[in-house]
UniProtKB/TrEMBL annotation:
Pfam families found in the cross-reference section: HTH_18 (PF12833)
Domain of life: Bacteria
HTH araC/xylS-type domain: residues covered: 604-703
InterPro entries, A to Z: Homeodomain-like_sf, HTH_AraC, HTH_AraC-typ_CS
Membrane-spanning parts: 12-35, 287-309
The UniProt record lists the keyword Transmembrane helix: yes
Name of the molecule in the record: Helix-turn-helix transcriptional regulator
Keywords: DNA-binding, Membrane, Transcription, Transcription regulation, Transmembrane, Transmembrane helix
C-alpha cells in the first residue's frame, strides 16, 4: 500500500530518492574535505619541522667542524701550552674569531683538564677562579672535570642561565681524548636561546605551536614557548621519536599533535607540538567555505526538488482538469477509457455515478485576467469541499463557466452540492464577484454530458432569483427546457436601442422577445426572460437620467411573479408603452435628442471609455481629451459639471478599486499590481493608494484577515 502511494505521488518519490542522496553526498564531501584539510595541515607542519631541523643542523655541523679543527690543532695541545710562552694568546684569538664568525654563538671556552684550566675569550682561569665568576651550571670547582669531560664525544646541556651575563643559553660540549684514553679536553659552546627563537620562529606554523629540542632520553633541552616543556616531559618519554609519522598525546584534558625528526648531525631530536584544537581552528575558514558551499548545494537541491514537485503537481492538476473537461464534453465512450486516464493521473477510481454543477461569475469590478480567477476559484472549490471516501470532486473551466464534477455514490451528491452552495458567500467576498450555480441531474458516465448541459441550462435561469441564484435543473419545466434558447444577444440589442431612444426599434425588439416567449410556451422561461427584460430597461433608463418617478405605471418594475404566459406578455406590452410614453412626454421629435440626454450619453461614453482604458499604462487625461476632441481644461470642467467629481478623482477611484481587488485576491507583487492598474511608476501607485485608503497596499493586504486566510488556503492548494 505504501509503495502504491509513493508511485501515485511522483513528487514523494523524488523526495524519497533525492533527499537521502543529497545528505549522503554532503556527509561524504564533508568527510573528504575534512580529511584533505587535516592532511594538508599535517603536511605543512611536517614541512615546518623539516625546515627547522635543516636550519639547526647546519649550525650544529658548523660547530662540529670548528670544534674538531680547534681541538686537533697544536695551539690547543697541553705540551705547547706548557712549553711556549704566550700560547694563551693563540687560543684566545682562535676562540674570539669563531664567536665573531658565527651568528648563533654567544660564547665559547676551552677546558684543559691536564692543566685544570679554563681558557675564555679574555684570559685563562683555574677551576677555582672560573667557578667564582661562572656558576650558572650549579657545579663546584671539584666537579668541573666530571661535569664537562664525560666519556661522550658530543653532548648537550639543557638551556639555563649559564651565560657570561646571566643570559639563558643552550650548551653544546665536544670532548677530546688527546693522548689519553679518556676525555682530557673539551670545547664548550654557548648558543643563546634568543637566537634560537629567531631561527625557529620563521618556521613555526602558528602561534600556539611549540618547537622542542630533545636529547636521547626525550628530555627537553630547549623549547620555543616554555609553556608545556616541563609539564609534558613524562608524556614525551613514551613517544617514538624515530619516525615522522604524526603522533598524538593527551595532556591536561587536551590532545596534541606531535611530529618528530632526528638530527643528522648530533644525537638530538626535533619535536613540533601543536594542540589539535588549533588544527581544527586553522580549518575554520575552510569549514566556513565548505558550509557555505553545502548551503548553496542544499538550496539548489531544494530548488530542484521544489521545481520537480511543482511540475509534478501542475502536471497532475492539469491532467485532472483535462479529465473533468473531457467528462463534461462527453468525450469518454466507456468506463475503461476513463479509468486509464484516472490511473495515469494517480487516482484509484471515479464513478460509478456523476453529477455536474456549473458556476457563473459576474465581476463587481473589471477583470483582466479572468482565466486566472476562474482557475483559482476552481482549485479553491476542489480544495475546500469536504472529502468523502466514496467520492471525488474534479473542476475545470470553459465557456465562461466553472464546471464541478461530482463522482461516486449518488446518495452523497446532495451533501456535496449543499457544501458548494455554502461556499458561495466566501467566494463572492474573496474574489469580489456574484456567483450563480446551476445543478444538473445525477447520471452515469454514458449520460454525464447531459448532466453538464442541464447545469448550463439551469444557469441561464439565474434571473429568476437574481445574479447569485442557485438553480436545480429538475425544478425547470422538463418538457421544454431542452428546447429553450436564451436570447442574450436580443436583450443586449434591446438595451442599446433604449439608449439611442429609437422608439420604432424599441417596439420591434421587445415584440420579438414577446414572440420568443410565446413560442416556447413556458411560464418559468417567460418569467426569467421578463425579469431580465425589465431589469435591462430599468438599467438603460437610469443611464438616461430617468427614475421610477418618471413612469406612470411603476407596477411593471415591482412584480413579484406572473400567473400565466399572457400575464407576462401583458406586462411587457405595458413596458413598451411606458418607455415610449416617457420619451414622448419630453416634447421632441423622434430624431431629436434633448440636450440633457446628449450630455448623459456623452458622460456615459466617457465613463465607459475610462473604465475600459484607465488600467492601461498609456492612458492619461490628455489622451482622453484628445479622444473627445476637447482640451484638458474643458474636459475637466465638463466632467465635473455633469458628474459632480473631478475626472482625475474618478480615474483614481477606478484604479484604487482595481488595486484593492488584486491585493485581496492574488499573490501579485506590488510592482505587478501597479502595472495592472495602469501606473508607470510604482512610487506614484504607492503614494496615491496611501492618500486614498490611509494605509499602504501591504497593510491593506494584511488587514483583511479572512481574505488573507482564504488566499493562503488557495496558495497552499496551488503548491500541494
Amino acid at each position: 500500500m505504501i509503495l502504491k502511494r509513493i508511485a501515485k505521488y511522483s513528487y514523494l518519490s523524488y523526495m524519497i530518492i533525492i533527499f537521502p542522496i543529497i545528505i549522503l553526498l554532503i556527509v561524504m564531501t564533508f568527510g573528504l574535505f575534512y580529511y584533505e584539510n587535516k592532511n594538508n595541515f599535517i603536511k605543512n607542519s611536517t614541512d615546518s619541522l623539516i625546515g627547522m631541523q635543516k636550519a639547526f643542523d647546519v649550525v650544529v655541523s658548523d660547530m662540529n667542524l670548528n670544534a674538531t679543527e680547534m681541538l686537533d690543532s697544536a695551539d690547543f695541545s697541553t705540551s705547547k701550552i706548557t712549553t711556549k710562552y704566550g700560547s694563551f694568546l693563540g687560543i684566545s684569538r682562535r676562540l674570539s674569531s669563531y664567536v665573531s664568525y658565527s651568528k648563533m654563538i654567544n660564547n665559547v671556552f676551552y677546558i684543559n683538564n691536564d692543566l685544570k684550566t679554563v681558557y675564555t675569550l679574555g684570559k685563562p682561569y683555574t677551576y677555582e677562579d672560573f667557578y667564582l665568576f661562572n656558576d650558572g651550571y650549579n657545579i663546584t670547582k671539584d666537579t668541573y672535570a666530571q661535569f664537562f669531560l664525560k666519556n661522550i664525544l658530543r653532548f648537550w646541556i639543557p638551556a639555563q642561565n649559564a651565560g657570561a651575563n646571566g643570559e639563558q643559553v643552550l650548551t653544546y660540549v665536544v670532548t677530546y681524548n688527546g693522548e689519553h684514553n679518556y676525555p682530557s679536553n673539551a670545547l664548550v659552546v654557548h648558543i643563546g636561546t634568543e637566537k634560537l627563537d629567531e631561527l625557529f620562529d620563521g618556521f613555526l606554523p602558528n602561534s600556539q605551536a611549540e618547537m622542542l629540542v630533545l636529547d636521547n632520553n626525550n628530555s627537553i633541552l630547549y623549547s620555543t614557548l616554555g609553556e608545556l616543556s616541563q609539564d609534558i616531559q613524562k608524556s614525551l618519554i613514551s613517544i617514538n621519536t624515530d619516525s615522522l609519522e604524526p603522533k598524538y598525546m593527551d595532556y591536561n584534558k587536551k590532545q596534541y599533535l606531535v611530529l618528530t625528526k632526528p638530527s643528522t648531525e648530533t644525537p638530538i631530536t626535533y619535536a613540533l607540538i601543536i594542540p589539535t584544537a588549533v588544527m581544527l581552528k586553522s580549518m575554520n575558514a575552510s569549514i566556513l567555505f565548505f558550509a557555505i558551499l553545502m548551503v548553496v548545494v542544499a538550496l539548489i537541491s531544494i530548488f530542484v526538488i521544489a521545481a520537480l514537485l511543482k511540475a509534478s503537481r501542475k502536471n497532475r492538476a492539469a491532467m485532472l482538469e483535462q479529465i473533468a473537461l473531457k467528462l463534461v464534453q462527453s468525450n469518454y465512450g466507456n468506463q475503461q477509457a476513463l479509468q486509464d486516464d484516472i490511473r495515469t493521473a494517480g487516482l484509484e477510481r471515479l464513478g460509478p455515478h456523476f453529477q455536474v454543477a456549473t458556476a457563473m461569475l459576474t465581476a463587481k469590478y473589471p477583470i483582466q485576467n479572468q482565466l486566472i480567477i476562474y482557475q483559482e476559484i476552481s482549485r479553491l472549490i476542489e480544495k475546500e469541499l469536504p472529502i468523502h471516501p466514496q467520492s471525488k470532486v474534479l473542476t475545470c473551466s470553459s465557456d465562461d463557466l466553472i464546471y464541478v464534477v461530482f463522482s461516486g455514490q449518488k446518495d452523497i451528491f446532495a451533501s456535496l452540492i449543499d457544501a458548494l452552495c455554502e461556499m458561495k458567500p466566501k467566494i463572492e467576498s474573496l474574489f469580489q464577484v456574484f456567483l450563480s450555480i446551476g445543478v444538473g441531474s445525477a447520471s452515469t458516465i454514458d449520460n454525464i454530458g447531459t448532466s453538464a448541459e442541464q447545469a448550463r441550462i439551469a444557469n441561464k435561469y439565474r434571473f429568476v432569483k437574481g445574479e447569485n441564484a442557485i438553480i436545480y435543473f429538475e425544478n425547470i419545466n422538463k418538457q421544454n427546457s431542452s428546447k429553450l434558447i436564451y436570447p442574450s444577444e436580443t436583450i443586449e440589442l434591446f438595451y442599446n436601442v433604449i439608449l439611442q431612444r429609437e422608439e420604432e426599434k424599441i417596439n420591434l425588439v421587445l415584440t420579438t422577445l414577446i414572440e420568443h416567449i410565446s413560442r416556447n410556451n413556458s411560464l418559468f422561461f417567460g418569467t426569467c426572460l421578463a425579469y431580465d427584460i425589465v431589469n435591462t430597461s430599468l438599467k438603460a433608463m437610469r443611464e438616461l437620467n430617468y427614475s421610477l418617478s418618471n413612469f406612470k405605471n411603476t407596477d411593471i418594475y415591482n412584480r413579484d411573479g406572473f400567473k400565466s404566459i399572457d400575464d407576462v406578455k401583458n406586462v411587457l406590452n405595458l413596458l413598451i408603452e411606458e418607455i415610449i410614453a416617457t420619451f414622448s412626454s419630453e416634447g421632441y421629435e423622434q430624431d431629436e435628442v434633448p440636450e440633457s440626454s446628449k450630455h448623459s450619453l456623452l458622460i456615459n461614453q466617457m465613463k465607459k471609455h475610462i473604465e475600459e482604458n484607465c488600467i492601461k499604462s498609456d492612458f492619461s487625461i490628455n489622451s482622453l481629451a484628445d479622444n473627445y476632441k476637447m482640451s484638458i481644461s474643458n474636459l475637466s470642467h465638463y466632467f465635473k459639471k455633469q458628474t459632480g467629481e473631478n475626472v482625475s478623482d474618478f480615474v483614481l477611484k477606478l484604479r484604487v478599486d482595481r488595486a484593492k481587488f488584486l491585493l485581496r485576491t492574488t499573490k501579485l507583487t506590488l510592482q505587478k499590481i501597479s502595472q495592472e492598474c495602469g501606473y508607470v511608476h510604482i512610487s506614484t501607485f504607492l503614494r496615491q493608494f496611501r492618500q486614498s485608503e490611509k494605509m499602504t497596499p501591504s497593510n491593506y493586504r494584511s488587514s483583511f484577515g479572512v481574505k488573507e486566510a482564504a488566499h493562503k488556503t488557495l496558495s497552499q492548494f496551488e503548491d500541494s
